[in-house]
Automatic annotation (TrEMBL):
Coiled-coil regions, chain positions: none
Residue span of region Disordered: 518-539
Biased composition (Polar residues): 524-533
Gene3D superfamilies in the cross-refs: Aldehyde Dehydrogenase, Chain A, domain 1 (3.40.605.10), Aldehyde Dehydrogenase, Chain A, domain 2 (3.40.309.10)
Name the record gives this protein: Aldehyde dehydrogenase (NADP(+))
Top-level taxonomic group: Bacteria
InterPro entries for this protein: Ald_DH/histidinol_DH, Ald_DH_C, Ald_DH_N, Aldehyde_DH_dom, Aldehyde_DH_Superfamily, ALDH_KGSADH
Swiss-Prot/TrEMBL keywords: Oxidoreductase
Keyword Transferase part of the UniProt annotation: no
Domain annotation Aldehyde dehydrogenase: ranges: 38-410
Lipid biosynthesis recorded as keyword: no
Length: 539
């Protein structure tokens, strides 16, 4: 396959008629060929019409066929081979090894959702049999299952050009839920997007699926992305990116005559708490591990450790010295886009210029769009008094907050917005303090982890990659792991529907062998209990 600059509207490759965009080589800034035609309003209309037409036939396919589609996408993505890795490396500057790993995660996610679909537990089937003899009134028969919400718009992330983009977690979970998907390609990796889009279209065609099950649009401005969210045929949105972008799309969705859910993953500084006994015992071990997590992938992970909280004292001084020494030798790394590099440099400059912030260390200087790591420190009082210090600086920068006592540390935590992760470094002797903190930590973050850093996100059944606003727009959900399918489902209850009219998964004989909760008894599972391979990657 080759990159042609064309979008995909259903099965048809189309050169968009509204302006054009170019990919840029992340490392050199060179303009890449070909140009990508942006979608026109008419092309958006066509993609939405096809998605709407595909919804009923697609969602009513046998579950095995839906699962086969996801597996076929995985095979076709793998079939893109070196061309995909090469183009993605060029557009993002991410190392090949990282991209090969991310491709493995992408394929693994698709296969995981195929298992989820085959298992049928995600349907959440519940049956309350009729009780005609019940006194004083008979009970009706109720049967419940979940169906897809309808066509879903997906906005992929710049920092995960494979695993959170065209065939990434949002697309995989929406397709698994029975929802057609229209992806608005990220302008930071258009060629990668086209290649992966072609793989999905080939999978759909090879299985004879309704053509509107997938479309890929390029946008030469903001009108097509915004028009997509506003279109009445779109019933949910998946987004990963900036807080500004996520909030803009949330507002459009909320102002529609029929508002729809937007699952936006936006901003998180991922606090790391160094508990006193752990810090005393292991300051010199924790520091280099922290720096490795901070600088990996030029710090462009949504779970990057942007904040360290600890009590003042000699142990914290030892940690600061060790972290500063480790950071000072770290090479600068190419960032994803000139825009992300610019924002990072502005964020670091603002911290360095802040009167109450001390610069502890910087990594080695780079060139072009390379980012050097940066480590800062401030007091608890200054941190709580300045909202700017609590904002995400996307990249390898982190701020240590020195707390005079445990009460101050609790106040600092209380002042934080919602987070994707909070990491705790603790020893056995720290348990009483941690026990005190846990209720507050649970209210602040989607995932609490111990003696590690949030940058490893397991794609699994018990993973939550989510959290209170602004980490996400809806803290009830996760964008990673099998539970992500729940975002695109809604329950439908069937009262006294004749057996002959019931969907197969609700049949009395349970012909499909899906998990059923019958009269409150039985194996109910929101997704699946089947074992799966685990895929650990950064996010
Ligand atoms: P972004 O600028 O929000 O873009 C994400 C996607 O949304 C892109 O497709 C973009 O279109 C589109 N978009 C953004 N604002 C829009 C608007 N107002 N209306 C319609 N569409 C809009 O995010 P990014 O470029 O990936 O990264 C920029 C910043 O996002 C980073 O500096 C970082 O702060 C944050 N970020 C956070 C995470 C996280 O997981 N927490 C991950 C990645 C990035 P275009 O392609 O045309 O720009």
């Amino acid at each position: 396959m080759t990159v042609t600059g064309q979008m995909l509207i259903g099965h048809t490759a189309v050169l968009g008629g509204q302006g054009s965009i170019h990919g840029l080589a992340a490392a050199s800034g060179e303009v890449l060929q070909p140009a990508f035609g942006g979608a026109s309003a008419a092309e958006l209309e066509r993609a939405c019409a096809l998605a709407e037409a595909a919804f009923d036939p697609y969602r009513q396919l046998p579950l095995a066929q839906r699962a086969a589609f996801l597996e076929s996408i995985a095979s076709h993505v793998l079939g893109l081979g070196e061309e995909l890795i090469e183009r993605c490396h060029l557009e993002t500057g991410l190392p090949r090894a990282r991209l090969e790993g991310e491709r493995g995660r992408t394929v693994g996610q698709l296969r995981l959702f195929a298992q989820v679909v085959r298992d049928g537990g995600f349907l959440g089937v519940r049956i309350d049999p009729a009780q005609p003899e019940r006194q004083p009134l008979p009970r009706v028969e109720l049967r419940l299952r979940h169906i897809g919400l309808g066509p879903v718009a997906v906005f992929g992330a710049s920092n995960f050009p494979l695993a959170f983009s065209v065939a990434g977690g949002d697309t995989a979970s929406a397709l698994a839920a029975g929802c057609p998907v229209i992806v608005k390609a990220h302008s930071a990796h258009p060629g990668t997007s086209e290649l992966v889009g072609q793989a999905i279209a080939r999978a759909a065609q090879s299985l004879g699926l309704p053509e509107g099950v997938f479309s890929l649009l390029f946008d030469s401005g903001r009108a097509i992305g915004q028009g997509l969210v506003a279109d009445p045929r779109i019933k949910a949105v998946g987004f990963t990116g900036s807080r500004t972008g996520g909030v803009a799309l949330m507002q459009i969705a909320a102002l529609r005559p029929e508002p729809i859910p937007v699952y936006a993953e936006m901003s998180s500084i991922n606090p790391v708490l160094l508990l006193p006994q752990a810090l005393e015992a292991r300051a010199e071990q924790i520091a280099p591990a922290f720096v490795a997590s901070l600088t990996q992938g030029a710090g462009q992970f949504c779970t990057n450790p942007g904040l360290i909280l600890a009590l003042e004292g000699s142990a914290l001084q030892r940690f600061e010295s060790a972290a500063a020494a480790a950071l000072a030798t770290q090479a600068a790394q190419t960032m994803l886009t000139p825009g992300i590099h610019r924002s990072y440099c502005q964020g670091v400059a603002a911290l360095a210029a802040h009167a109450q912030v001390q610069t502890l260390a910087q990594g080695l200087a780079g060139q072009g769009t390379q980012a050097r790591g940066a480590l800062f420190a401030t007091s608890a009082e200054a941190f709580m008094g300045c909202a700017q210090l609590r904002e995400e600086v996307f990249g390898p920068a982190s701020l240590i907050v020195r707390c005079p006592d445990f009460a101050a540390l609790q106040q600092v935590l209380q002042s934080l917005e919602g987070q994707l992760t909070i990491a705790l470094h603790l020893s056995d002797g720290d348990h009483p303090q941690v026990r005190t903190l846990l209720p507050l930590l649970e209210r602040k973050a989607g995932r609490l982890l111990v003696n590690g850093f949030g940058t490893g996100v397991e794609v699994a059944h018990a993973m939550v990659h989510g959290g209170p606003f602004p980490a996400t727009s809806d803290s009830r959900s996760t964008s990673v792991g099998s539970l992500a399918i729940q975002r695109f489902l809604r329950p439908v209850s069937y009262q006294d529907l004749p057996e002959a009219l019931l969907p197969a998964e609700l049949s009395s004989g349970n012909r499909l062998h899906v998990p059923q909760l019958i009269d409150g008894q039985g194996p109910i599972s929101p997704t699946t209990h089947s074992p799966t391979g685990a895929f650990t990657h950064r996010s």
